[in-house]
Amino acid sequence: MIKMRKILLIILVFSLLLTNTDAIQTLGPDLTIESVIMSPFPVTPGEEFDLLVELKNSNTRKTIKELEFSLDDGYPFKAVSNNVKIASLEPNKKIVVTFRISTDKNAVNGVNTLRLVYEDSTDIKYVSKELLIDVLSNTKDLSIISVRTLPREIVPGSEINAVVTLKNMVNVLMKEIEVDLDLSGDVPFTPIGSTTKKTLNSLNSGEEHDFIFDISVDADAESKVHKIPLIIKYSDEFSKNYTIDTITGFKVATRPKLDYSIDSSEVYSSGKNGNVVIKVVNSGLADVKFLNVELLKTEDYEIISVPNVYLGNLESDDYETAEFKIYANSRKEVPLKLKVNYKDAFNEDYETEEKLMLPLYSSSELIKYGLSGNGGVSTSISYLILVIFVYTFIVEWRKEKSIPKAFKNTVMSFLKFIKKIIKAIRIRTLKRILLRIILFFKEP
User: Fold this and answer.
1) What are the phi and psi torsion angles at 204 (to 5°)?
2) CA 113, CA 20: separation in Å to the nearest integer?
């Protein structure tokens, strides 16, 4: 018996939920509206539902004939089937008429209305009072207006504010709002002073709210858009729970930093030609793409080679070289003018002009620094003479078994050799000098 009472109580509560409690009303002299039921309940924007209207002939004697029912619909409802005809309704009998109705997809949450229109054989038209229809959207009515950072440009090693702005777009109170900016993944961001979760007790219809997160950016953050999960949980005034699970992005951008230098050169003096190698170093944190180096023509030099060198991609902490062949017109240093074009990680174009000074040297400076073209030949001859001298000295030492005599004989042999050379070229002055040197060594 107790179990049966519980079942009846449940049925009663369910009936109350499905039934519009304000629905009982009189429709004409003999017809009454007993109940109004919507299936499914609640009504959802963009969907169809059945409206079931229970009607009763309250006249105890008279039969109502030729009953015809229709709906006086209006936004946000439109009747799909809008005409129901009943041949007759006997005294104290009930009938249920059903209408198929579509709901506009933009219908707002809350109570909307319809009216039932009735005619019988008397051709008199009766219109009911408003039938209350509850509309409740299944869509997420809390809108993400924006996700932005302050400052807008995120630089590695800086501190920023991430601002998530939400707006209540419907006529329903939103409550228990929780915003989670998930920085637990492989991203170069760390929350400062608080967690990555922010909460709000409630948000009224039409109101906006900013959820602000204090964030530190890693010093070695890569220049790109870092994807970050954004999870928003909330409920409405009907205690229905919602979750928005989406992705937002933070753009870390740093300007590329390129350094230029002369890596090597074959051009040391005016009026000479040779290759000049330019070194380009990416000393910044951002990678560079489509790098092109062009040597611009000036009156200080002639460009013999192709003036453009394409270097392609240049990663951070890496370098490339560009080689050009020039003829130097300038008598002092040569200012090499370069035009450099490239793109960053976000395909933003960059163009710069650079100037590198190529030093030139006089003849004496070339000899001093060992940069003369004859320096190699002179050095080779000097080494050859030294080798011959040492060999002659060893031969004489084996003969004489005396270092002084061996050294003296070696010098004499070299002087005689030089004398023969001088004799061959007939330079008298040098010949006399050499004779005096020989007589000096002959003296005891």
Assistant:
1) -75, 165
2) 12
- Residue 188 CA to residue 198 CA, distance in Å, equals 20
Instruction: Detail the DSSP E strand segments found in 136-272.
Output: 142-150, 159-168, 174-181, 189-191, 197-203, 208-217, 225-236, 241-251, 258-265
Work out the number of other CB atoms within 10 angstroms of the CB of residue 366. 17
User: What is the per-residue pLDDT across 377-390, written as a single tens digit (0 to 9) for each?
Assistant: 555 666 777 777 78
Ordered DSSP codes for 48-63? EEEEEEEEEE--SSPP
19 and 131 housed in the same domain = yes
Closest CA to 262 of 334, 311, 172: 334
Total number of domains constituting the chain: 4
Cis amide bond preceding 307, omega within 30: no
Range 129-143 average pLDDT: 75
Domain of 150, in residue numbers: 142-251
Residue 10 covered by a domain = no
Residue type, 413: S
3-state secondary structure (DSSP) of residue 342: strand
Q: How far is residue 166's CA from residue 146's CA, in Å, rounded to a whole number?
A: 7
Beta strand 77-81 with 48-57: parallel, antiparallel or unpaired?
Answer: unpaired
Say whether pTM exceeds 0.85: no
Q: Environment class of residue 334 by beta-carbon count within 10 Å: exposed (0-12), middle (13-18) or buried (19+)?
A: buried
CA–CA dist 290, 3 (Å, integer): 81
- On whether residue 6 sits in a domain, the answer given is no
Q: Which of 218, 235, 251 is the last residue of a domain?
A: 251
* Contact between 25 and 32 (Cβ < 8 Å): yes
